[in-house]
Design the sequence.
């Protein structure tokens, strides 16, 4: 019996060591997977927020160009191609907004994204140059505010 007890203790020690090692390895693997997932989400958010801001800037640029064509008789004409470009860029801005909204998880940021798009879209309704300048400033500030508001979600 005295020879069996050390063998049983050795086997139990080995089993206990194996179990503890497995538990630590599992926790380490779960932590690594969580960190990897969090970093991937962070990168996707950065891409989505930057993509949305870029789409807004491009949409804004073409709306201002079209406003000048329509209101100040610039050399260019308000061609169907220019109108089509406005529609395509508005669509791209909406698509980028939806992507950003899906990744954010924040109702506040999601609402801000929609309000920012509305600020930019308001450019086409400006009646005179003074109103255009006012709406341009407001839309530029709205885009900057959106970008600033995304910082906590990518930090």
Sequence:
């Amino acid at each position: 019996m005295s020879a069996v007890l050390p063998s049983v203790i050795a086997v139990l020690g080995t089993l206990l060591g194996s179990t503890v090692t497995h538990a630590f390895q599992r926790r380490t693997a779960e932590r690594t997977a969580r960190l990897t997932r969090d970093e991937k989400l962070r990168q996707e958010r950065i891409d989505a927020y930057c993509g949305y801001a870029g789409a807004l800037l491009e949409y804004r640029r073409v709306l201002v160009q079209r406003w000048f064509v329509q209101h100040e008789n610039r050399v260019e004409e308000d061609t169907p191609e220019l109108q089509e470009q406005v529609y395509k860029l508005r669509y791209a801005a909406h698509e980028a907004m939806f992507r950003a909204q899906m990744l954010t998880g924040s109702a506040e940021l999601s609402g801000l994204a929609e309000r920012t798009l509305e600020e930019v879209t308001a450019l086409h309704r400006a009646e005179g140059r003074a109103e255009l300048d006012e709406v341009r400033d407001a839309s530029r500030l709205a885009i900057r505010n959106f970008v600033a508001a995304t910082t906590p979600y990518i930090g």
